[in-house]
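Please, is this right?
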Amino acid sequence: MSNVKATTSATFEQDVLQADGPVLVDFWAAWCGPCRMVAPVLDEIQAENPDKITILKLNVDENPDLAMKYQITSIPAMKVFQNGEVASTIIGAKPKFALEQDLAPYLG
């Protein structure tokens, strides 16, 4: 069972832009090997930090409008949203310690 939930074009505004606290959106696709590699790492980070950050997955094939809006040109791409704005961007699959370093400002 995954700790990371999905968001879509229909729920993005409520799930991400109106969220309290930081939200990491993992822009991914089913055919993307590195995306599948980073998914369990994001699961772990979400499980270990449930009160600090919300991690959501967004399938770029099913939601091309959001992929275009946020200029996703390669995946996996992760964007951290804070107060409805992109606060930081992480490109590519990384090991857990590297992702935790990138997310340190939000994990406190």
The CA atoms of residues 9 and 63 lie 6 Å apart. The longest helix spans residues 33-48. The chain has a mean pLDDT of 96.
